[in-house]
């Protein structure tokens, strides 16, 4: 802690001696403004200390684990990048020397405190920034609350809930000693083969932006960073979610128009919400790797969109300018390109420090350019309060982690995220005729409900779907679980024949199938770098469902997966299909409550389900000519469109109203009546779309402009009003300028349609 009333030192020399002698230096005085403190500190730093601030390393504890797992024999590029080139024994000393400014994936408060105390021994005592992939909760850390994955959160269409989830995550992260999460992922998912769809909020730019901004607010806690904030990191700029062939890392060959219409708007929303950091994407954009793309980082993000935070590289992507993209001959050239492009911090390892120091000494990069990055990083450290208090109190993590309140929040989010895709003959909710329920399938008892960014969690901390069904079964209902193994890739004959035998004694069968995303399980088929060339159920799961259906028992398919799946047979023949996604640690309970009907399903798809991998990009907001011709042997429409999702009650829409004439600058006020015409209380997600009917450039057949989730009791009718800002009617004209063109627009809500006219500017 700091001493009050110490004399401030103005000049560099005096400051250095103050810092070295243990007396307080000006930058250590919280009474100064943030900018004064930054400038004072910067003025005292050597070039090496500055470059050190730009260097991030993987935490020593994780490096040690990785070293144990290191495969023998030749490794592909950087298969064990945590280890490559990093001298574990020297890390502590490098922190003391101020050559490391940040670590990622520190998982215990003890290690966080230990590293911070090493930093406190450095000449200028600059605290470390500790970052972690806390994507759905601080889930890489054992014992934390694992919230539903982002694709689940998107299915809730509930920004307020999403903000609360992010706030709870921030509390758990900060108590474990980190102050930065590499989230939200605001990539707009446009290729279901890509293994990272589950980390995103789906295919619609407006929804992704609104939820991304909600997460930014939740993580950071207030418009300005403070001692309870964790910094958000908007990633990955940009467009890697539409990679060639669906393969992670592959080129994003998107036009500037598509980039600006689809991929950029969510970043703009998050920048407006104050996102403190951003991460560059693995991929190239139009021939230029994002990490070397000055136009993208400096011109578009910083100058045009006003991003004021700092930019971190993705995992060893500066190195990959040499090894994968082949745009740099060696690391010195790669560092030159990345720093010139606007990169502020290198994730991760020793490859960056020496080349950058050399580049500055040789005059190729001005020291003032390094200063810009260091300023941004130091601003964050000061704003987070790290100079005042960088440690975590013993016992703090245990007090605030996996609390009852956080578990209830995880449950609420899971309940609201489950999407009922099909329910023929009202087989759901399970009623009095379903006294004997068989549950089976490789995902029924799997930790995969916690998603790609969850590490191993204690078994008692999560409720699987089979377990949830057993626990939630009403009196007199017997749930039996046939365990045919948890592999999705390979299923023995006995898993199918045994399940079929067990089904003979059941009134109804719940088959839990899908994809495994468990990062530590080699059986996984989705996640980062786990992409697919088709979208059918993996392995023999379809055969299992077909065999179960052949018994004549009603089969309910519960999907647990992180990307849209295309299983036409199931969608056609099975009476009920529930999309659970990866609903987090309380997910099994939420799924069971939906099946038993104690919770009325209310999730809606934030992404279309294509009919097959050949139908990739049957996105809902497509351009008019897409799908004008259809396939020779198939329809072109998606199996389930964006927004799909059933309820156990029914909703009807009427009375759609919009002012017929809109003058330039005026918002469009739309209202519609929504009524619950069924017999149960339920949540409806009201989705408002618009279309520019004739425009100078092609515009989507419909685009989401607003949405609202409302709860309605039976017979309740409510008028839901929306205000759509005038500039939301804009298109990008032939010169990519945002303009609202006069003419006719249509408004679509709940199957109703109205038109209005935008008047020309006088
Ligand atoms: C991913 C990022 C992640 C980083 C650190 C990368 O491979 O693309 O999303 O934040 O690793 O774990």
Topology diagram in text:
Elements: H1 12-21, H2 34-44, H3 47-53, E1 55-58, H4 60-69, H5 91-96, E2 102-104, H6 109-120, E3 129-132, H7 150-156, H8 159-175, E4 180-181, H9 205-220, E5 233-237, H10 256-272, E6 277-280, E7 284-285, E8 288-289, H11 294-304, E9 310-312, H12 319-323, H13 331-341, E10 346-347, H14 353-361, H15 367-383, H16 396-400, H17 404-417, E11 419-423, E12 436-440, H18 465-472, E13 478-482, H19 493-504, E14 508-514, H20 541-550, E15 555-560, H21 568-573, E16 576-579, H22 587-596, E17 651-658, E18 661-662, E19 668-676, E20 682-692, E21 703-712, E22 717-724, E23 731-732, E24 738-739, E25 743-749, E26 752-758
Parallel strand pairs: 1-2, 1-10, 2-3, 3-4, 5-6, 6-9, 12-13, 12-14, 14-15, 15-16, 18-26
Antiparallel strand pairs: 7-8, 11-16, 17-19, 19-22, 20-21, 20-25, 23-24, 25-26
Bound molecules: beta-D-glucopyranose.
Beta-D-glucopyranose is lined by residues 133, 182, 235, 314-315, 528.
């Amino acid at each position: 802690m700091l001493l009050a009333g110490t004399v401030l030192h103005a000049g560099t020399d005096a400051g250095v001696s103050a810092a070295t002698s243990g007396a307080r230096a000006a930058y250590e005085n919280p009474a100064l403004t943030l900018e004064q403190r930054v400038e004072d500190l910067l003025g005292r730093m050597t070039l090496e200390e500055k470059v050190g601030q730009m260097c991030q390393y993987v935490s020593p504890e994780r490096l040690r684990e990785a070293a144990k797992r290191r495969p023998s024999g030749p490794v592909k590029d950087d298969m064990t990048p945590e280890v490559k080139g990093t001298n574990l024994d020297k890390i502590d000393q490098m922190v003391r020397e101020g050559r490391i400014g940040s670590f990622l994936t520190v998982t215990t408060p003890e290690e966080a405190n230990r590293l911070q105390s090493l930093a406190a021994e450095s000449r200028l005592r600059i605290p470390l920034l500790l970052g972690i992939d806390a994507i759905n909760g601080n889930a890489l850390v054992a014992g934390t609350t694992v919230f539903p994955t982002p694709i689940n959160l998107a299915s809730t269409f509930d920004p307020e809930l999403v903000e609360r989830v992010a706030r709870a995550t921030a509390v758990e992260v900060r108590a474990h000693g980190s102050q930065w999460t590499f989230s939200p992922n605001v990539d707009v998912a446009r290729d279901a083969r890509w293994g990272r769809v589950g980390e995103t909020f789906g295919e619609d730019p407006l929804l992704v932006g609104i939820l991304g901004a909600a997460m930014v607010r939740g993580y950071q806690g207030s418009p300005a960073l403070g001692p309870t904030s964790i910094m958000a990191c908007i990633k990955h700029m940009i467009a890697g979610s539409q990679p060639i062939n669906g393969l992670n890392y592959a080129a994003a060959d998107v036009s500037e128009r598509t980039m600006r219409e689809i991929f950029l708007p969510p970043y703009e929303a998050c920048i407006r919400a104050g996102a403190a950091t951003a991460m560059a994407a693995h991929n190239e954009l139009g021939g230029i790797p994002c990490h070397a793309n000055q136009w993208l980082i400096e011109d578009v993000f910083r100058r045009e969109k006003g991003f004021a935070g700092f930019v971190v590289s993705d995992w060893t992507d500066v190195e990959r300018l040499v090894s994968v993209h082949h745009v740099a001959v060696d690391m010195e050239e790669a560092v030159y390109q990345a720093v010139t492009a606007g990169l502020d911090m290198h994730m991760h390892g020793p490859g960056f420090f020496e080349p950058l120091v050399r580049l500055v000494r040789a005059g190729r990069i001005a020291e003032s350019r390094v200063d810009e990055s260091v300023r941004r990083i130091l601003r964050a450290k000061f704003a987070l309060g790290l100079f005042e208090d960088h440690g975590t109190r013993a016992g703090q993590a245990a007090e605030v982690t996996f609390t009852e309140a956080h578990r209830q929040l995880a449950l609420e989010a899971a309940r609201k995220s489950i999407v009922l895709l099909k329910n023929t003959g009202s087989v759901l909710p399970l009623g009095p005729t379903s006294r004997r329920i068989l549950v089976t399938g490789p995902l029924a008892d799997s930790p995969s409900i916690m998603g790609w960014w969850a590490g191993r969690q204690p078994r008692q901390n999560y409720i699987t779907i089979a377990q949830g069904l057993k626990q939630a079964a009403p009196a007199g209902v017997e749930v039996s679980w046939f365990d045919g193994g948890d592999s999705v890739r390979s299923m023995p004959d006995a898993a199918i024949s045994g399940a079929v035998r067990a089904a003979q004694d059941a009134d109804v069968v719940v088959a839990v199938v899908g994809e495994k995303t468990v990062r530590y399980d080699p059986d996984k088929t989705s996640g980062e770098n786990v992409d697919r060339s088709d979208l059918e159920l993996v392995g023999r799961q379809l055969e299992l469902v077909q065999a179960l259906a052949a018994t004549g028992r009603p089969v309910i398919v519960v999907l647990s997966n992180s990307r849209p799946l295309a299983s036409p047979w199931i969608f056609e023949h099975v009476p009920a299909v529930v999309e659970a996604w990866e609903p987090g640690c309380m997910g099994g309970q939420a799924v069971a409550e939906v099946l038993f009907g104690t919770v009325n399903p209310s999730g809606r798809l934030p992404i279309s389900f294509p009919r097959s991998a050949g139908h990739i990009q049957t996105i809902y907001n497509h351009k008019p000519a897409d799908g004008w011709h259809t396939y020779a042997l198939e329809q072109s429409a998606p199996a389930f469109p964006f927004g799909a999702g059933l309820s156990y009650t029914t909703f009807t829409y009427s009375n759609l109203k919009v002012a017929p004439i809109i003058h330039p600058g005026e918002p469009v006020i739309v209202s519609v009546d929504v009524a619950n015409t069924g017999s149960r209380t339920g949540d409806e997600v009201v989705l408002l779309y618009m279309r520019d009917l004739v425009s100078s450039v092609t515009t989507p057949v419909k685009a989401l402009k607003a949405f609202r989730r409302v709860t309605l009791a039976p017979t309740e009718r409510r008028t839901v009003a929306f205000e759509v800002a005038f500039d939301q009617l804009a298109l990008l004209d032939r010169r990519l300028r945002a303009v609202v063109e006069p003419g006719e627009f249509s408004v679509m809500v709940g199957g109703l349609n109205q038109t209005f006219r935008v008047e020309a500017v006088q």
